[in-house]
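Quick one:
INPUT:
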């Protein structure tokens, strides 16, 4: 790869990462790629939501289940796992929670 292309790519990644805030860069890029390739269906996301120490994750599990209809479970003291079809806008909305430290996970083609 040429030095110019690498510089452009590194700049792109840096700018996207800044815009994402708490959302993992790789997860966001996967979601956005699938949204563009298949605009009629959101990608299936397996999401790890890392909360600050001391957050009541049981209430967060209930909230995520009721608000979005995701399959959700607690995972350790400060983390919950959620699975469902998600857009980058949904991830941004979830990330607005001030008690969240980081969103990570993986996306794949949605199943019907």
């Amino acid at each position: 790869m040429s030095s110019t292309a690498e510089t452009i790519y590194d700049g792109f990644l840096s700018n996207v990462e800044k815009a994402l805030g708490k959302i993992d860069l790789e997860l966001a890029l996967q979601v956005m790629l699938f949204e563009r390739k298949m605009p009629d269906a959101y990608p299936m996301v397996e999401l790890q939501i890392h909360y600050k120490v001391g957050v009541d994750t049981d209430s967060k599990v209930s909230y995520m289940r009721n608000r979005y209809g995701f399959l959700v479970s607690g995972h350790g003291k400060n983390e919950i796992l959620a699975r469902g079809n998600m857009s980058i806008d949904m991830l941004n909305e979830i990330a607005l929670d001030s008690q969240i430290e980081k969103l990570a996970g993986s996306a794949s083609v949605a199943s019907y």
